[in-house]
UniProtKB/TrEMBL annotation:
Family according to the record: Belongs to the Nth/MutY family.
Taxonomic source organism: Amycolatopsis arida
Source domain of life: Bacteria
Keywords: 4Fe-4S, DNA damage, DNA repair, Glycosidase, Hydrolase, Iron, Iron-sulfur, Metal-binding
Cofactor or coenzyme needed: [4Fe-4S] cluster
Single GO molecular function: purine-specific mismatch base pair DNA N-glycosylase activity
EC number in record: 3.2.2.31
Name the UniProt record assigns to this protein: Adenine DNA glycosylase
Signal peptide: none
Amino acid sequence: MPTDTALDTDTLLTWFAEHGRDLPWRRPDCTPWGVLVSEIMLQQTPVARVVPLWEEWLDRWPRPSALAAASQGEVLRAWGKLGYPRRALRLHAAAAAIARDHDDVVPADVDTLLALPGIGAYTARAVAAFAYGRRAPVVDTNVRRVVARAVHGAGDAGRPSTTRDMADVEALLPAEESRAARLSAALMELGALVCTARGPRCADCPVYDSCAWQRAGRPAYEGPAKPVQRYGGTDRHVRGLLLDVLRGTSDPVPKERLDVVWSRAGQRDRCLDSLLVDGLVEQTADGRFALPGEHR
DNA sequence: TAGGCGTGGAC
DNA sequence: TGTCCAAGCCT
């Protein structure tokens, strides 16, 4: 007789059909392009902050070629304070590649998606699954946590290993394509709504009865401590302050306008240099600074 | 592969 | 307040 119970994926699918959120990029009329934009925006960013910006972007740039026709500066300004603005530049570049090389149609093939800028192991499979109904292991932080608990009986996921993590999820996926795609969404949704990092709501969990973490008595996480991400006073902080100045003006600004945002000159200059290197800022012929692509 | 890369809300 | 966290990617 079996010593453990396989995760009840049928029940999870039923729960998702009833309790999954009605997010705009999940609606039947959403295009693959809409799904791709949502996935990039959602990287390390909460759903609530993405929704309004996603609506704005899809209205303004309904196809990859439309975004590709915009300047980098326009795109960065439209990205606003969503965070990690290099994502906007990479999405812009991906849109140009899709328009040029793929007839303005977002690819459905994982390897083709992986070749595009800003699209990694997670996003490529998320687009294949959610935009095209493909069977692909979609592994994000939610899924890693759900698998760690419900399958392995651990308190949380350890350090990521793309190969091992995808194999874990692959083993859970049903054979049928669209069903597998829905299970991937359901695993993520369970992690986002129920099997959360802090304060998991096990009493509301659809797979409580087949959860290995429950059977193990809900042991605490025992792996290596996760590194703390500081922000205040870091280069990321200063880069954010510098970019905020440039987003707020239509004309190039002299360096003095940037110098006032941070008192430590060495760090300030290093950050401005790194923004230039990253292509997030450009210098005009007369030495002023601006978002890229608008003042050549 | 470990660390850099924005931002703001929740507790 | 400070800490943790949020659908990762790139080097």
